[in-house]
Write a structure and sequence with these properties.
Structural class: mainly alpha
Strand content: under 5%
CATH architecture: Up-down Bundle
Number of helices: 9
Radius of gyration: 20 Å
Distance between the termini: 47 Å
CATH superfamily: Glycerol uptake facilitator protein
Helix content: 55-70%
Largest sheet: none
Order of helices and strands: HHHHHHHHH
Number of strands: 0
């Protein structure tokens, strides 16, 4: 993708295959994360294992489906890419709807497979842990969700959007970015970092505590990362070189 978008370089329309890919990719991401959280005993989650589940599943989904849809799998990522004109508005809306569908289907399957044991953890719903997050503050939870999503989208910008980025390693780098963010913020907020990943299990479990931070936080963090990266990295590189002025004969 180019660093700047002119009318001639407007993003191509996405088709049904891309929409289905977003459903499948989001389904896989949410299912394996929530399945892991459902079968783990409360308070005994291995942070390294939790981070690796996020990293491996996201990387696998990116490599498998990135060529079809761009592998967003996250409304915050889609909104961030729309903000820098890497995806058309109608496609962005369709992507978000598909991501929510995939997340709900994943949570329903988790409940079907692990109904009794999963109910203890509300099938993986992301919630604030007052024992970890200072004063159980929703405001601090918002910052945590925004910062974790910022890291994720910054990695996407650096590897998948930047034309000089290491595209072949994008899936690995993006997966690692998510895994690291989850290991840090998971104990505090559950590390939703993705409105769809929060929405699916929340709807199925009927748990909507502090819902706004899991929507506003990731959207704000993703937008800040996309716009900031474009301003700091992509825009300066896109400026044409200025030819040296010729000296006037004196």
């Amino acid at each position: 993708m180019s660093a700047t978008v002119t009318p001639a370089e407007a993003p191509e329309p996405r088709g049904p295959a891309a929409y289905v890919a977003e459903i499948v990719g989001t389904f896989l991401l949410v299912f394996f994360i929530c399945a892991f959280l459902s079968i783990a005993h409360p308070g005994t989650h291995d942070l390294a294992a939790l981070g690796l589940v996020h990293a491996f599943v996201l990387a696998a989904a990116i490599y498998a489906l990135g060529g079809t849809s761009g592998a967003n799998f996250n409304p915050a990522v889609t909104v961030a890419l729309w903000s820098i004109r890497k995806i058309r508005l109608p496609d962005a809306v369709a992507y978000i709807v598909c991501q929510l569908i995939g997340a709900v289907l994943a949570a329903l399957l988790v409940k079907l497979l692990f109904k009794d044991v999963g109910a203890v953890n509300d099938y993986g719903v992301a919630t604030i842990n007052k024992a970890v997050l200072q004063n159980g503050s929703a405001g601090l939870g918002l910052i945590a969700e925004a910062l974790g999503t910022f890291m994720l989208v910054w990695a996407i910008m650096g590897t998948a959007v930047n034309p000089r980025g290491e595209a072949p390693f994008a899936g690995l780098v993006i997966g690692i970015a998510l895994g690291v963010a989850v290991m840090i913020f998971g104990p505090a907020t559950g590390a939703g970092l993705n409105p769809a990943r929060w929405f699916g299990p929340a709807l199925v479990a009927g748990v909507y505590s502090d819902a706004w931070i899991y929507i506003v936080g990731p959207l704000a963090g993703g937008l800040l990362a996309a716009l900031g990266y474009r301003a700091l990295v992509l825009a300066p590189r896109a400026l044409p070189a200025v030819a040296p002025k010729e000296e006037l004969p004196g």
